[in-house]
Design goal:
The complex is a heterodimer of chains A (385) and B (256).
Chain A: H1 2-27, H2 31-50, H3 53-63, H4 65-82, H5 87-112, H6 120-137, H7 142-157, H8 161-166, H9 170-189, E1 199-200, E2 205-206, E3 209-210, E4 215-216, E5 222-223, H10 226-248, H11 251-261, H12 263-268, H13 273-299, E6 301-302, H14 309-322, H15 327-343, H16 345-348, H17 351-365
Antiparallel strand pairs in A: 1-6, 2-3, 4-5
Helix pairs in contact in A: 1-3, 1-4, 1-15, 3-4, 4-10, 5-10, 5-13, 5-14, 5-15, 6-7, 6-13, 7-13, 10-13, 11-13, 14-15, 14-17
Chain B: E1 2-13, E2 16-27, E3 31-35, H1 42-49, E4 57-62, E5 65-66, H2 72-77, E6 80-82, H3 95-102, H4 111-115, H5 118-139, H6 141-144, H7 156-168, E7 174-178, H8 186-200, E8 207-211, H9 215-221, E9 224-229, E10 232-237, H10 239-244, H11 246-253
Parallel strand pairs in B: 3-8, 3-9, 6-7, 7-8
Antiparallel strand pairs in B: 1-2, 1-4, 4-5, 9-10
Helix pairs in contact in B: 3-7, 5-7
Classes of the chains: A mainly alpha (385), B alpha/beta (256).
């Protein structure tokens, strides 16, 4: 089976490149190295995306999705193990995985169903605050707390459903922008939720395993407690990825596309436009809420300033940079956009400015993003047709 | 027996009366031509039937069921499918995707069925692909081989074919064709109509309303014609009689 062997090799090579890049990107300190690596990654992704390599890799991965996702998780965990002593690198890695989860939610909303959500950080924040309250004031097990946080985000999001269904395009964006600003203002004036000072969040404990203890492997070998969160966050991102991929390659994903591309034609063929918009919006907010819940427990302290409109813009930038509607593209895009400002102190101050410029540049010159979305692959095992 | 009947159907846009108390019946298995000058209300009639416009008055009955003012989804469920004057295909999607949008009412849209029971879903996909291949092959063998290409990569004639196939694949009882010849050459139009008639043999109960400016097409494929002018039906009958009618000539050419 040389063909099958070739495709397995291409997936493995792509994963190795990804793992090496992730490791280096998190590990290096020199400013010029960071810049060189980031530029190198963008160029490499361009070549990867525009030559046939990405198509081959994505098709092989789709043919054996379980295998591909498992291998990806393993490679990320290998990177995490290699960085086991560095609090900061692991914190970044877990953050990236959680943002990937939230951005996958945004992919369902924006990429598939065409609902532009500029309040991603607000729904992420709802997850954070729900967790802060539930974990501190109730004896609920933390699995339940995380689930409840996702549900709360989805539930509060349903307040926006009516206006979203009544408007289209830019007006939907305006509604979510308004909500995003409203959310932050509400948190700042609400004393029960800590006001501008924010809230402390207890660390996570799952089935008696406390996440905020360092992991003692042998007498001399100790790993940062963030490793716990990396494992959990990566598992969550993998689950979300499988969910999104399954959604895409199903009649539901097709309904989302039909609703995004032409509501009128969709309705004429019996597609319930409202039903699919509600499902996409709710599911996306749920994912953002769950990601927020784990994030809050990981960083231990949350404040309104982390959930501004600017933060929502970062989520949207990730989705657009990665390639709107391509779940895979979210991963390198999140890695680049989140880690770069942490590594390059120079741009820390100007990051919103830089992101805005970046989004404009992408929309002008590469509207499909780094890894443009591909046609739905119905028979990945057989190739096309 | 009439499968579709419009009684006094009226559509208004503000002060403008686009359809003025239209009475029209479509018999089961019939091909009805709908002709008239630009702006006479033909497309408005389709839009009112398919739930895109809310009629200001009158009734629409399909197969004994009142669908006046029903949602587009309910109209689709009642067995109506249509094409659009200006192509409304989803260009970035594949031919197959577009056809499956038309096949919506035959597919399983449950969350569990789509996300968890993947084996059953794969069988539905294969059945859908077989159905799509058979149907498109009637129109063009080459097109049937390009089911998984993006529609954006195909020429106009293929897009027209896909649009008709998208309307047919859901096995409607009534097909509304809005100027299928728009943007095509004479020969292409004739070929398309021949293919459509061939496809129709597989669905003997299918009734068609055809809006068309190409009178040769109307003459060749319709059993009966209705002529609209300023939202009113001014004449109805076999093409030969309608074409010779004084009122129709006046509507098209103006008074002298």
């Amino acid at each position: 089976m040389p063909e099958r062997f070739k495709s397995a090799t291409s997936v493995l090579l792509a994963l190795t490149a990804f793992a090496v890049f992730t490791y280096l990107f998190l590990e290096i300190e020199q400013q010029w190295e960071v810049v060189a690596l980031a530029i190198g990654a963008i160029v490499a992704l361009q070549i990867f995306g525009r030559s046939g390599i990405a198509a081959r890799v994505e098709r092989s991965a789709a043919a054996n999705q379980r295998g591909a996702v498992t291998l990806t998780v393993i490679s990320v965990l290998v990177v995490a193990a290699a960085l086991h002593e560095s609090h900061f690198a692991l914190l970044m890695l877990a953050t990236v995985a959680l943002y990937v989860t939230a951005c996958l939610g945004l992919t369902i909303q924006f990429g598939y169903a065409g609902i532009v959500n500029f309040a991603g950080a607000a729904f992420f924040g709802i997850g954070c605050y729900t967790t802060a309250v539930l974990a501190a004031h109730t004896p609920l097990p933390h699995v339940v707390v995380v689930g409840a946080s996702g549900l709360t985000a989805a539930l509060i999001g349903s307040a926006l459903i009516l206006p979203i269904l009544r408007t289209r395009g830019h007006y939907v964006a305006l509604i979510t922008i308004a909500f995003s600003i409203l959310f932050k203002t509400f948190l700042e004036v609400n004393d029960t939720l800590g006001g501008p000072q924010g809230l402390k969040v207890p660390g996570m404990a799952l089935f008696g395993w406390s996440f905020n203890e360092p992991i003692r492997i042998t007498e001399n070998l100790e790993a940062s407690f963030y490793l716990n969160y990396v494992v959990l966050a990566v598992a969550l991102a993998a689950l979300a990825f499988v969910l999104v991929k399954r959604l895409e390659r199903s009649w539901i994903g097709l309904n989302f596309d039909a609703v995004r591309l032409d509501e009128t034609a969709a309705a004429v063929f019996g597609i319930g436009v409202a039903r699919w918009k509600i499902l996409a919006f709710t599911l996306g907010n749920f994912l953002a809420g769950v990601a927020g819940a784990i994030y809050a427990m990981m960083i231990g302290f949350i404040a309104p300033n982390s959930f501004t409109f600017g933060d929502s813009l970062i989520l949207v930038s990730i989705v657009i940079l990665g390639g709107l509607g391509n779940a895979l593209g979210v991963i390198p895009a999140a890695l680049l956009l989140l880690v770069l400002p942490e590594k390059l102190q120079v741009i820390q101050e100007y990051r919103f400015l830089l992101y805005s410029i970046l989004v404009i540049l992408i929309l002008l010159y590469r509207p499909d993003g780094l890894l443009p979305r591909r046609l739905r692959e119905y028979f990945p095992q057989r190739g096309r047709g | 027996m009439s499968i579709l009947a419009a009684h006094g159907l009226t559509v208004k846009f503000g002060g403008l009366i686009a359809l003025d108390a239209l009475d029209l019946e479509l018999q089961s298995g019939e091909v009805l031509g709908l002709i008239g000058p630009n702006g006479s209300g033909k497309t408005t009639f389709f839009n009112a039937l398919t739930g895109l416009y809310r009629p200001a008055g009158g009734r629409v009955v399909v197969n004994g069921k009142d669908i006046t003012g029903a949602s587009p989804q309910a109209v689709s469920a009642a067995g109506l499918a249509r094409t659009f004057q200006r192509s409304r295909l989803c260009l970035p999607l594949s031919v197959f995707d577009n056809l499956m949008i038309g096949n919506h009412r035959n597919l399983d849209h449950g969350i569990w069925a789509n996300l968890v029971r993947r084996g059953a879903l794969q069988r539905q996909i294969e059945a859908g692909a077989a159905k799509a291949r058979t149907l498109t092959a009637i129109f063009s063998a080459a097109l049937a081989g390009r089911l998984f290409d993006p529609v954006a990569a195909l020429p106009m004639i293929d897009r027209r074919r896909i649009e008709i196939c998208r309307a047919l694949i859901g096995e409607p009882r009534i097909l509304l064709l809005d100027e299928p010849s728009a943007g095509m050459t004479h020969d292409e139009t004739h070929e398309l109509m021949d293919d459509l008639m061939a496809a129709r043999e597989r669905l003997p109960a299918l009734s068609i309303i055809l809006i068309e400016h190409e009178m040769k097409v109307i003459e060749r494929v319709t059993d009966r014609c209705a002529v609209l002018n300023y939202g009113r039906k001014i004449c109805e009958g076999a093409y030969r009689d309608v074409a010779g009618d004084e009122r129709v000539r006046k509507a098209y050419l103006g008074e002298d």
